[in-house]
């Protein structure tokens, strides 16, 4: 059972799903999966595939008989990439729709804004955004599926260190994600012998970063450039970067790990390096890789349903739903407190982002080895040499 709504009350029901369920499942009270994602607006390339993933797997679970003999009902809203709308939608999910869990918030700012609501209401919240502040310090009812920006910075700096690059320019978006990435990059850079010798910023809606990049180009100390941003901005920046003929290696965060980035950046994306989940290179993984089957099966199913390529972002929604359903099965109930405890005890659950091992002190459950360092070559994702 699916109920998808936009803020303008547009409703869509999945036809035929309930007819595929057994009579006992039909009669049972549904498990209500709440979500708000950025299906439109600047962050749509994050939120739209996440919504599609939740839709297709709620349908699949229902076709397979539901969970605990109960169907799933997806109640999903589009926040339009607007933090204030995300807050109002979270309130609606909690107090009007009475959902059992909330899975969503691809933007760090939106996730942070709704945390006080879910903590007060005591509703499990599995965020899909990257900011470390979502789970550090630990919040009792809050979990996440994406690597933190701290680990992303660590992976990038480790790669730079390996390549003998130690003086860099840091370019960050003024969004919540960008500023959190700036803070974490500054924090861990010394651990890898990295000096940040230049810093620039840009707005989330900026379309030309040439002035900032020109300053970097004329800084003789810069050996590499690291960008922390989300949405179209990093892709437009990449084009500006190549247009200016900057020779220093360009690194991005995992927030651009989707084919949409390559589509917008075009040939300028070639040579860019970044950490990303194994989804982007699923076909190239050896059969012995423990993650190969999970990411390959998911990517193939997503493409078969939507005729679109799966991405790191869509995979995060799959991970969030599977973490929740796994916890419900282990708890044997949808009681929110018991499911929260079960999520916190998730161990060895292999999903698209890696093997999740959560604890009371770690509500993400991934480490610096979860993702792969990738490089774009001729418009394709490859494992970085």
SSE sequence, one letter per element: EEHEHEHEHEEHEHEHEHEHEHHHEEEE
CATH superfamily heading of the largest domain: Response regulator
Radius of gyration, rounded?
20 Å
Low-confidence region ranges: 3-25
* Integer tally of domains: 2
Supply the helix-strand structural class. Answer: alpha/beta
Major sheet summary line: 7 strands, mixed
Number of strands: 16
Strand order of the largest sheet: 2-1-4-3-5-6-7
CATH level-3 fold name of the largest domain: Rossmann fold
The chain-level mean pLDDT equals 91
Assigned CATH class of the largest domain: Alpha Beta
Helix count from the secondary structure assignment = 12
Strand content: 15-25%
Describe, in plain words, how this protein is organized in 3D.
- With 385 residues, this protein is of the alpha/beta class.
- The chain folds into two domains: 209 residues, Response regulator (Rossmann fold), CATH 3.40.50.2300; 147 residues, 3-Layer(aba) Sandwich (Rossmann fold), CATH 3.40.50.2300.
- Helices cover 39% and strands 19% of the residues.
- The strands form four sheets. A seven-stranded mixed beta sheet has the order 2-1-4-3-5-6-7, sandwiched between helices.
- The protein is globular.
- The N terminus is likely disordered.
């Amino acid at each position: 059972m699916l109920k998808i709504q936009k803020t303008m009350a547009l409703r869509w029901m999945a036809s035929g799903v309930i007819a595929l369920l057994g009579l006992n499942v039909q009669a049972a009270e549904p498990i209500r999966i709440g979500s708000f994602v950025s299906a439109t607006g600047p962050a749509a390339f994050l939120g739209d595939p996440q919504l599609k993933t939740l839709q297709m797997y709620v349908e699949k679970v229902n076709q397979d008989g539901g969970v605990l003999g109960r169907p799933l009902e997806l109640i999903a809203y589009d926040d339009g990439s607007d933090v204030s709308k995300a807050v109002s939608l979270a309130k609606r999910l909690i107090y009007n729709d009475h959902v059992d869990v909330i899975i969503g918030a691809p933007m760090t700012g939106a996730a942070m804004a709704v945390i006080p609501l879910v903590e007060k209401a005591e509703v499990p919240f599995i965020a899909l955004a990257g900011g470390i502040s979502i789970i550090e310090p630990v919040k009792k009812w809050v979990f996440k599926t994406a690597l933190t920006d701290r680990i992303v910075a660590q992976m990038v700096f480790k790669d730079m260190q390996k390549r003998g690059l130690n003086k860099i320019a840091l370019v960050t978006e003024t969004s919540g994600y960008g500023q959190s990435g700036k803070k974490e990059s500054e924090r861990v850079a010394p651990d890898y012998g990295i000096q940040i010798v230049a810093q620039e910023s840009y707005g989330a809606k900026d379309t030309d970063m040439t002035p900032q990049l020109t300053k970097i180009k004329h800084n003789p100390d810069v050996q590499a450039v690291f960008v922390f941003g989300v949405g179209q901005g990093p892709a437009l920046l990449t084009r500006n970067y190549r247009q200016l003929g900057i020779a220093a290696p360009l690194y991005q965060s995992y927030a651009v790990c989707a084919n949409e980035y390559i589509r917008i950046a075009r040939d300028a994306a070639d040579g860019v390096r970044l950490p990303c989940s194994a989804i982007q290179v699923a076909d190239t993984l050896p059969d012995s890789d423990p993650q190969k089957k999970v990411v390959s099966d998911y990517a193939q199913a997503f493409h078969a349903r939507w005729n679109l390529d799966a991405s790191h972002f869509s995979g995060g929604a799959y991970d969030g739903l599977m973490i929740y359903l796994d916890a419900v099965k282990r708890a044997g109930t949808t009681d929110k407190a018991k499911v929260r405890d079960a999520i916190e005890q998730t161990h060895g659950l292999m999903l698209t982002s890696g093997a999740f091992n959560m604890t009371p002190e770690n509500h993400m459950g991934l480490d610096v080895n979860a993702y792969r360092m990738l490089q774009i070559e001729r418009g394709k994702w490859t494992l970085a040499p």
